[in-house]
Amino acid sequence: MTGIIDYGAGNLLSVANAVRSLGVESKIVAAPEDFDGVTRLILPGVGSFGDCVENLKRQQLWQPIKQWLADGKPYFGICLGYQVLFESSEETPGVEGLGHFAGQVVEFSPEAGDKIPHMGWNEVSLVDPAAAMWNGLADRTHVYFVHSFFPRPADGSIVACRTDYAGESFAAAVMSGAVWATQFHPERSQAAGLQLMKNFIDAN
């Protein structure tokens, strides 16, 4: 059973439809008791870092998610669901993230000349094309982004792919054990995104 976290601002319908198209059963997780029966977790995210943290805490989902990650259970973070895995974000100074990974979320520099937010299709450079995350996907695959901030992982070994934008070669995805997360939106990345979500489900 795939649980999709609902904290009041995620792109739930698109993610649920993508999971359904893969023939996989899912349920919405909006309260602690909703974790019952869930074997893998997806946290889609839109909005601000601080609002996401506040809403997850208000719904009493923060600690269950932290425990889920600590237990090494399958987790897929999308966009903001990727960023909150880290310790903090420049978007909302003083607000602590889940801290599952060391590192900070930082903002693109407008001085590079590219439009901010980074919005639209861009290619990803795979760090290890043989990794389970990339089954059936080629290097330089194009995926869909909408963001102004991105994580800088302290541990480079968790970086699964990189994308170039606004003078940065940033970590567009990470993979560590059963924890996968992407800055891009697989649910909006057509066939490539569906393949990536299928890979997560097949691996977990």
TrEMBL record:
GO terms for molecular function: glutaminase activity; imidazoleglycerol-phosphate synthase activity; lyase activity. Keywords: Amino-acid biosynthesis, Cytoplasm, Glutamine amidotransferase, Histidine biosynthesis, Hydrolase, Lyase. Residues 4-200 form the Glutamine amidotransferase domain. Its EC number is 4.3.2.10, 3.5.1.2. It comes from the Bacteria. Pathway: Amino-acid biosynthesis; L-histidine biosynthesis; L-histidine from 5-phospho-alpha-D-ribose 1-diphosphate: step 5/9. The active site is at residues 79, 185, 187. GO terms for cellular component: cytoplasm. IGPS catalyzes the conversion of PRFAR and glutamine to IGP, AICAR and glutamate. The HisH subunit catalyzes the hydrolysis of glutamine to glutamate and ammonia as part of the synthesis of IGP and AICAR. The resulting ammonia molecule is channeled to the active site of HisF. This is Imidazole glycerol phosphate synthase subunit HisH.
